[in-house]
Amino acid sequence: MAEPRLEIGVIYTHERHFMPPLLTSMAASCEGHRARLLLVDNASADGAEQWLPLFPDARVVRNRRRLHYSANLNRVIEHSRSDYLLLLNTDMYFDPPAQCLSRMVDFMDAHPGCGLAGCRLLHADGSHAPSARRHQTLSIIAARRLGLAPLMRRTISDYLYADRAPTDTFACDWLSGCFLMFRRETLEQVGPFDEGFVKYFEDVDICHRTALAGWSVMYHGATYCYHLEQRASRKLFSHDARLHLKSYLRWLWKWGGTPRRRAA
């Protein structure tokens, strides 16, 4: 049997309450395209096999030991063979009538220069959760981390492409890593995630490398899914906030403070 056109990578460690709504709604959102689930069992205590019946074509990739986020994403890439690969957070779910996955495959087919794409994201209450971003600057970091956003609304609006309607389609600097659909040829050219980014900025980095390789990074707002965003790094002195700062410093070391200029 031919390989599916789309493979979907999900990492399972202990997120039991997210799995049923994610997998059942995902299975109902790809009509017209054969899809396969690549479920990484990140050394979970209860085993990922229990979730296989929720998706028609599913395989488990087992880790002997627990890996960090970027390394797990690379485990998915290592085992994927399809035309398109979607890397997806567990805290997501779909609206089957929207047929998000089918429409995203159709979008990639219609835009051969697009190497990496994301859809519109919604919070559980239906409000827009911006997924397309411009590259972060020190002023954006300050606005988001130090509670200065109310005083820097124009900076935040520019960062989140607030000048574009949520339903628009456009090229962007980077996309939230909770939903990243790659073209196979792009991954073969760009390579895997930089595992030096333990958590955070791994999505920014691979989007930037995709653009440097000549592919478009595109936001497609004509379809959507839901993201139950956790924002673990929101608290200034939390462990995740420290990881975020460490990853940003690595980003600055790797690309400097003006990545858009370097890309040009």
Number of strands: 11
Secondary structure category: alpha/beta
Give start-end ranges of low-pLDDT stretches. Answer: none
How big a fraction of the residues is strand?
Answer: 15-25%
Order of helices and strands: EHEEHEEHEEHHEEEHHEHH
- Kindly provide the radius of gyration, computed on alpha-carbon positions and rounded to a whole number of angstroms: 18 Å
Distance between the termini: 43 Å
The biggest sheet, with number of strands, parallel, antiparallel or mixed sense and barrel status, is: 9 strands, mixed
- Which whole number gives the mean pLDDT? 91
Number of helices: 9
Shape: globular
| Helicity level | 25-40%
Task: Characterise this structure.
This protein is an alpha/beta fold and 264 residues long. 33% of the residues lie in helices and 22% in strands. The chain is built from nine helices and eleven strands. The chain has helices at residues 19-27, 69-79, 100-110, 138-145, 153-159, 184-190, 202-212, 239-255, 259-263; strands at 6-12, 35-41, 58-62, 84-88, 92-93, 114-122, 132-133, 169-171, 174-175, 179-183, 216-227. The strands form two sheets. Strands 1, 2, 3, 4, 5, 6, 8, 10 and 11 form a nine-stranded mixed sheet that branches. A two-stranded antiparallel ribbon has the order 7-9. Helix 1 links the parallel strand 1 (6-12) and strand 2 (35-41).
